[in-house]
Amino acid sequence: MTDRKATLTIDGHAPIELPIYTPTIGHPVVDVGSLGSHGYFTYDPGFAATSSCQSEITYIDGDKGVLLHRGYPIEQLAEHSDYIETCYLLLEGHLPSAAEKIKFENIIRRHTMVSRSMESFFSGFRYDAHPMAMLCGAVGAMSSFYHDSLDITNQEHRTISAHRLIAKMPTLAAMCHKHFVGQPFIYPDNSLGYSENFLRMMFATPCEEYEVHPALAKAMDRIFLLHADHEQNASTSTVRLAGSSGANPFACIAAGIAALWGPAHGGANEAVLTMLAEIGHEDRCAEFVARAKDKNDPFRLMGFGHRVYKNYDPRATVMRQTCDEVLEVLGLENDPLFRLAKKLERIALEDEYFVSKNLYPNVDFYSGIILKALGIPVEMFTVIFATGRTVGWISHWNEMISNPYRIGRPRQLYTGAAQRDYTPVNQR
Ligand code: SDX
């Protein structure tokens, strides 16, 4: 912290001194906590300039396109690490030694199965229930299976809950898919790596052997890694707010899943494919780009723009390389849908409106294309995002609960009716 202060003078009254805290890197922050005692609140809808907490997990510089997980650049983690190692890094704060990594991988492997009762839970969903609706319900229901470890003041309970969530999300995600396509659930195979195991649970059937292509398993692992955490985004902030009331970790992650579902957030990857289907052909790109620029048209180019990145999203750069690799491995470089996506990207990157508003392709633009190429149904895209982001959510939850915290309770600018007396209905 620091002894720097900001001075606020209102209507000629005595100046109000507000502490300024200095971060390791990034913007200093002004502590406005004492303003209430002076009769004022701050006002920042959407929290565009509001820090909700102090954190050591992830740092983003939107202007420079920087994303660090515990200080390590996302580009280096994407190139040299894997998802499970990145999970360890986010949870523990440092890269694991070789022995620590093997031990962590084995712990996660030992928790991949879900209770048999969960299968009957899925049978209660409509045959065509949206996978995100099923995932939200299933993860919230997990707290009904682990009464032995819901004491959030107990670090061991917090640790086993984090391990269970990271380990079981792929299993639950694949169960959502299997229910949606009407196929039998496939149990995890603990001889496989995390992402390979997930793809097998997604696409294998009891009728025949199923081999996961190594390049596709690597692409899936990179997608999980690139979605692992992203500072105080809408869903992570939702997890923290739910956690601040003392709710159990499974309920908090279910709240994060619900927040992620929206098309402005994690639902964007699904919305990208829906948009590409609506555009239909390369020749209509210009028409839709014009609509995206038209203030009277609510249409937005899904997969473009970001609240924080006002340059490029470093994850999108890595994801774009992965996208090219997957399309090449699958021989889809000339697939009309992917050619359309590439043309839309080219037009937007050259268009003055998008350039002037720093609307670059974000992580969701390319991840949607890769997931489609991997044969994952569009309805499952946000479930994949939630699976990768679970470690970020639970790491932030654990960071908050492990340190002194208060229940989150924002205030408001009230513009409703002043006090008035009730009038009986026969006098209205
Ligand atoms: C994620 O926060 C995170 O970190 C999120 C995330 C994570 O990892 O957790 O990175 C994941 O959510 C990525 C974003 C995925 N969403 C989309 O791709 C949906 C399309 N994008 C937009 O809806 C929008 O860009 C947001 C929601 C992402 C950002 O919205 P902001 O920061 O509130 O920006 P804004 O809505 O105020 O837009 C600023 C201007 C506006 O024009 P003006 O009113 O200034 O004239 O840019 C325009 C907007 O109309 N604009 C777009 C646009 N996005 C913004 N115009 C056309 N197409 C778009 N996609």
From TrEMBL:
Q: In which pathway does it act?
A: Carbohydrate metabolism; tricarboxylic acid cycle; isocitrate from oxaloacetate: step 1/2
Gene3D superfamilies in the record: 2.20.28.60, Citrate Synthase, domain 1, Cytochrome P450-Terp, domain 2
Q: Which Pfam families match?
A: Citrate_synt
Keyword Acyltransferase found = yes
Q: Which GO terms describe its biological process?
A: tricarboxylic acid cycle
What are the positions of the active site?
H306, D364
Chemical reaction(s) catalysed: oxaloacetate + acetyl-CoA + H2O = citrate + CoA + H(+)
* Keyword Transferase in annotation: yes
Q: Which UniProt keywords apply?
A: Acyltransferase, Transferase, Tricarboxylic acid cycle
Report which superkingdom the organism of origin falls in: Bacteria
Example GO CC term: the record gives: cytoplasm
Query: Which is an annotated GO molecular function term of this record?
Result: citrate synthase activity
Q: Which family does it belong to?
A: Belongs to the citrate synthase family.
Q: What is this protein called?
A: Citrate synthase
Source organism: Gammaproteobacteria bacterium LSUCC0057
- Name of the gene encoding the protein in the UniProt record: gltA
